[in-house]
Write a structure and sequence with these properties.
Layout lengths: L9 H17 L4 E8 L2 E8 L6 E5 L6 H7 L8 E5 L19 H13 L6 E3 L2 H5 L1
Parallel strand pairs: 3-4, 3-5
Antiparallel strand pairs: 1-2, 2-4
Length: 134
């Protein structure tokens, strides 16, 4: 199960979250924010694009930040409902606990995220660590 926080201090966490918020504010799109309960802790998901558009999930790399991944895939938000979770144990608004890499734990986490969002089948894009999750 999850272990210690990724942050060494409250100040470090505050600085990372401030950068996250600044990047999110600078995006030229409107985003929705959802929290989903998983067996590893609460997961924050940024959502962008038309509500009735087909869904696509984008997974970010280690320490990249979900606002950055949305920036990279901004053109998709014209025609798709883009879901971008903050991975557990990475910088962002999700639970700050590390997930043990064995026993398919990130796969289990992703199943919980999909269930929490009410999504069953959709395309995925994984960048770096996000590809590893896939």
């Amino acid at each position: 199960m999850p272990v210690a926080s990724i942050y060494r201090s409250a100040q470090g966490e505050a600085e990372v979250i401030a950068l996250y918020e600044k990047k999110l504010a600078n995006l030229a799109i409107e985003t929705d924010s959802r929290m989903v309960d998983t067996r590893f802790g609460r997961t924050h998901v940024l959502i962008a694009g038309p509500q009735e558009a087909p869904p696509v999930m984008v997974l970010t790399g280690i320490s990249t930040g979900t606002p950055r991944i949305l920036e990279w895939f901004l053109p998709l938000t014209r025609d798709y409902r883009v879901y971008a979770p903050d991975p557990i144990g990475q910088p962002g608004r999700s639970a700050q606990t590390r997930v043990p890499p064995g026993d398919h734990n990130y796969g289990k986490w992703m199943v919980d995220v999909l269930n929490g969002l009410g999504l069953e089948r959709l395309p995925f894009i994984g960048v770096s660590f996000g590809g590893g999750i896939l």
